[in-house]
Structures are given as C-alpha cells and as structure tokens.
Amino acid sequence: MKTMQIYAFDMNCVGHINHGLWTHPRDRSAHYTDLDYWTEFAKTAERGKLDGIFLADIVGVYDVYRGSPSPVIETGAQIPVNDPMIPISAMAYVTKHLGFGVTVNTTYEPPFLLARRMSTLDHLTKGRIGWNIVTGYLDGAARSMGFDKLPEHDARYDAAEEYLEILYKLWEGSWDDDAVVRDKAGGVYADPSKVRSVRHDGKYYRMEGIHLSEPSPQRTPLLFQAGASARGQDFAARHAECVFIAGPNPKAAKPTVDALRAKATEFGRGADALKILSLITVVVGRTEKEARDKLEDYRRHASVEASLAHYSASTGIDFSKYGLDDVIDQSSTNANQSALATITKQAPSR
After folding, report:
1. Distance between CA atoms of 221 and 181, rounded to whole angstroms?
2. What CATH number is given for 7-343 in this structure?
3. pLDDT in tens, 108-127
C-alpha cells in the first residue's frame, strides 16, 4: 500500500489561495511578518504529523484583471509578499521531522547563487529542504526584473533545463565527499585536490566557479515541479521527484497523472519515480453538519474580486471582459497553461 504524503500549503503573505479569509476573526495570517507566526505554524504541523510545509512564491503582482494591480492590492491577494526561504531555518530549528518545500523561480536568479542558498538551507534543516522549480508566468514580474516581457513558455523550460544542468554540477561535482577534513592540528580545513571548478558555456548561461558550500546532507535537494503543460510534464518527468497538480476531481486529474507516469517511464525512471500531490482544501468538523457550517462561515469572507484577479493572472485572461455564461475558448497563452486547461480542455461538459 502506498503511503499518502500530506503537506500544508502556504505562502509568506496575507492571502494565499483562499482569498479574503484574512478578514475572518480567527485568521492570524496578517501576522506573517512575525517569525513567531512561522515557528508556531511549523510546530503545529509537526504535532499534527504532517509530512511537511510547502511555501509557494510569486515575483510580481497580478495586474491582468481590469488591467490594474488595484484589486489584489486592496484585497491582499498575494501582495504584499515576503521571501519564502527566510523563515525556513527558524521553522526547521523548532521541529525535528517536518520537511520543507520552497518555490524559487529559475528565470530571474543566477544558478550559482541559488546553488549556495539551497545548500545553506539543506545544512540548516539537516537535509529537510525541497525546491519547487518554476519558470514564472507574469509579464509584470519580467518587467520588474528588467525584461521587456516574459520569455516564451517553452523557452523558459529550455533555459530551466540548462539551469538544472549547472546546479547538478555544482551540488554533485564540485566537492568530493571527503574533501572536508577539518584537520585542526594540521591547519587544513579542506583538501584543495578534491575541490574543483564547474564550467558551463551554453545557450542561456555561462559560468565558471567552485561551489561555495561544502557538501550538504542531500547535496541536491528534493525536487518538486508543478507544470502540467506538455513541456512542463517533460521537465517534471526528467527531474522532479514530486509533482503538484490541481485537478478539480480524480477523473479530471487522471489524464495528467497518466501522462506524467508514462513520460517518467519513457525517460527510463519508471512510473513510480514520481509522487503526485494534488491540491485539496479540507474543512473539518466533529460532524458533517459542523464542517458544512464552517465552510459556509468561511465563504462569507471569501473575496470573489481577489479570486478573479488571481485567476486572470494565472491564465493570462482578463475575466472582467467575460459574462458569467460566456465560453472561454482560448487554446494557449504565455501564462500558466495548466490553469487555463482547467477551464477549457479539462472543463467538465454541462
């Protein structure tokens, strides 16, 4: 029997996925700037026997809906948002077994620097860190980073393949396992003959240098991926150990799961090489009525405007231009293609 993996899914901000719930009297997410908020969250998750906490991230503001960032700024929908990596070492310090996944975008950060940050967290968490590999989908984020616009969808994945190639060389090949000797009497911390420079000269990246961190417990962290487009599935089948999907039900999720497992087999990894984790929101109660009453209570605090703004940015479609009964028939955008497929290709027929 396969073991189910359960992660709490959050973000270093006020409003992550269930927009508007920060207004609920019991909600404490407005304390996201307080480190105690994150350490208490981690202790609660470990006490509840969760496998880990997964922190999402976005570098940009959702400005597709109504052509403005105002709706998300007003409602606190993933803005303001802080760096997700910084609280993790403190969360690891107050826990023993909890794993941590963190989203970092390959498009806007040199691989050499990310290699060190991940190795640092791998050391500080004692091997409990995972990386969710994303390439971004917001034109606004691209402009913030000095680009005219976001690179094309498949080109972002092509660059990410090269990015991973560099990281594997740095994490796995720059330092031998026995390079660090810590010889106090001889005054030798590491043997230079067992440390080597990494060189890469490719289409998207050029670099040469020694990895700045000594070998960490995992070397390469646990790799997550969340792209469900054809190119994203190829990438996940080659590199990921865990894949996040967001199928609205098992029937809708099955084609994506089958495709991922088939591709993993095609690349010689085997169908069981990937763990598939599906997004689900759970409302609990001692009885079904109590749970349903809670759900209705939460719904009274939900922000439709924030949700539309978030989904508009995810799909690249301004939903303010559509009526409730209008059909959305776009086949592709340069944004999140899996999010678009959910309301087009994978949408249930009426």
Report:
1. 23
2. 3.20.20.30
3. 999 999 999 999 999 999 99
